């Protein structure tokens, strides 16, 4: 029983960690490009990136089902290649968590990149340093506080994702049940002790992450 109780905790941490990796790569790449480029439709692109932040979770879940479900283009391609649907798997939880975490990672990374003095990058470029090396050795270190903040917020958002995950990944014990969905199931079953256990774990993790962010700001 104790082992089963910890399954949602382990799955949630795994899903949130993988989602953080994907959201960091996507969010940082998009932020670096869009912070330095102006082109027609830039506002639309940024709006689409930030949209999951304000959309109802059910809408996000519905869109993901349409795209990655058995009848969606991506879903059919995955089904053809791997003979398996992403629907109601823990991979679906990762995709959902990544989608809702990207806006936070993107916004923080963009703020960090905009705060970097472009003259430093220009001087390095004139001295013959490659753009990739400038990005990894100058831009990212100078924006590290914003990137760390974005990473923590993205991880926390992925860890707490519920509505879209419930729609897309489901709530299958031992397979797709994360802590938020486990809390939902425990309350429905009247098992308040289990519900409180997961609530305390999430609050504790969230508290220390937010404390870390605040401590870096002061």
From TrEMBL:
Family annotation (PROSITE patterns): ABC_TM1
Coiled-coil ranges per UniProt: none
Ranges where the ABC transmembrane type-1 domain occurs: 9-211
Localization per Swiss-Prot or TrEMBL: Cell membrane
Gene Ontology molecular function, alphabetical: molybdate ion transmembrane transporter activity
Transmembrane segments: 15-35, 47-68, 88-106, 146-169, 194-213
GO cellular component terms, semicolon-separated: plasma membrane
Listed CDD domains: TM_PBP2
Alphabetical UniProt keywords: Cell membrane, Membrane, Molybdenum, Transmembrane, Transmembrane helix, Transport
Record's bilayer topology term: Multi-pass membrane protein
Signal peptide: none
Family indicated by similarity: Belongs to the binding-protein-dependent transport system permease family. CysTW subfamily.
Function description: Part of the binding-protein-dependent transport system for molybdenum; probably responsible for the translocation of the substrate across the membrane.
NCBIfam families given in the database record: modB_ABC (TIGR02141)
Official protein name in the record: Molybdenum transport system permease
Originating species: Phocicoccus schoeneichii
């Amino acid at each position: 029983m104790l082992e089963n109780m910890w399954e949602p905790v382990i799955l949630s941490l795994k899903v949130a960690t993988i989602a953080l990796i994907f959201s960091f790569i996507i969010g940082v790449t998009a932020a670096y490009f869009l912070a330095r480029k102006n082109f027609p439709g830039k506002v639309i692109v940024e709006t689409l990136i930030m949209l999951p932040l304000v959309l109802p979770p059910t809408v996000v879940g519905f869109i993901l089902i349409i795209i990655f479900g058995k009848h969606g283009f991506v879903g059919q391609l995955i089904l053809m290649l791997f003979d398996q649907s992403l629907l109601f798997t823990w991979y679906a939880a990762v995709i959902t968590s990544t989608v809702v975490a990207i806006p936070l990672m993107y916004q923080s990374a963009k703020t960090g990149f905009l705060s970097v003095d472009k003259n430093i990058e220009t001087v390095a470029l004139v001295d013959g340093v490659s753009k990739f090396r400038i990005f990894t050795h100058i831009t990212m270190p100078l924006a590290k506080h914003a990137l760390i903040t974005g990473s923590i917020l993205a991880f926390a958002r992925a860890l707490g994702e519920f509505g879209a995950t419930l729609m897309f990944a489901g709530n299958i014990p031992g397979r797709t049940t994360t802590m938020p969905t486990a809390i939902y199931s425990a309350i429905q079953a009247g098992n308040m002790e289990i519900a409180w256990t997961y609530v305390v774990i999430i609050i504790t993790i969230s508290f220390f992450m937010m404390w870390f962010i605040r401590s870096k700001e002061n």
